[in-house]
Protein: 4-hydroxy-3-methylbut-2-en-1-yl diphosphate synthase (flavodoxin)
Amino acid sequence: MNNLLAPCKLPIPSGPSPRRINRTVQVGAVTLGGGHPVVVQSMTNTDTADIAGTVKQVADLWRAGSEMVRVTVNNPESAAAVPHIVEKLRMMGIEVPVIGDFHYNGHTLLTNEPACAEALGKYRINPGNVGFGRKKDTQFAQLIEFALKYDKPVRIGVNWGSLDQSLAAQLMDENALRAEPWEASLVLREALIRSALDSAERAVEIGLPRERIVLSCKVSGVQELIAVYRDLAQRSDFALHLGLTEAGIGSKGIVASSAALAVLLQEGIGDTIRISLTPEPGQSRTQEVIVAQELLQTTGLRAFTPMVTACPGCGRTTSEFFQELAGVVQNHVRAKMPEWKVSHPGAENMTLAVMGCVVNGPGESRHANIGISLPGTGEAPTAPVFIDGEKALTLRGENIAQEFVALIDGYVEKRYARTAG
Structure:
């Protein structure tokens, strides 16, 4: 009889798996693949022909931490605008690679606007939308030839919603001849992977080096995405871009993207990611960048900004002050990080704690670089502050928030100041 009370024999995870070692791809000044840190990418939702609006949004995304930004290039006006967008960004000191997203007519747009082909940092080609019938191979080849001419990398991005229908039909016919046919979902999964791999091999035949190719196979289902990328990672050594397409709005999009990408990243799969959130009305596009950064940071893969631990609150925390302080601290360190990144490297690794009562407050605060334990219901109106595990001082009165933020700034100045030379 099994002893249900026997000690658990499951191994304790020690962190994410080592990065999947594959080909390194250079996109402007950004290096992805080959075991390098996972790169955060985003995409504008402006009309690319609106130069001022697109420049502003690209700049906002870059300031939020996006290391590559994709723009739609869908008509002559947007193609003509791209060189001006890139030039204005450079004048602002923003060297972020701008990626052109092409569907249907990319070959024509780049033929008519060679300055666009030269200004872009990378091209994104969807094999399902590059062309149809006999024109497909010719138009795909034209795009690859532009990449060769201007020394640009290419992402071959297959999407569940725009899958190459001729390939899907071919695989369905082949499946029907099997002694034990696969389920239709498995055939479609194979069609996604084959579309990406076959297109990559076609690009190589035309002359594009493997070191300039990134692959993606996006779907909107969590389990499907995990299965597709596990298979794709086993069958190729190309750099991989991860993203759950059409993830959704608000918490649903955040949870779905995190659930899918966290599993793959934990297994060492993925070299660049995008969180494809539908912005809520009035919400900044930069939310998808923040979520991507927080996903990478909470999984231990990268550090972007100091992490703030805060308790959820309970009956002991009847005051809302700890919630307000946690928000103040989070906003402060995120706003300061662009400056600290240059003047105080390493500050992004700092941990902070804002706790609401004596139960877990002192303990959590001791685990952080700087932590504060605010008074809960019935506790004395004092807030002990812990620095590097030791109680350093106690704050009281009306200016706790300002004083705690000042302590954080002082700690950063002392511990992370860049040394001369």
Summary: Residues 184-206 form the longest helix (23 residues).
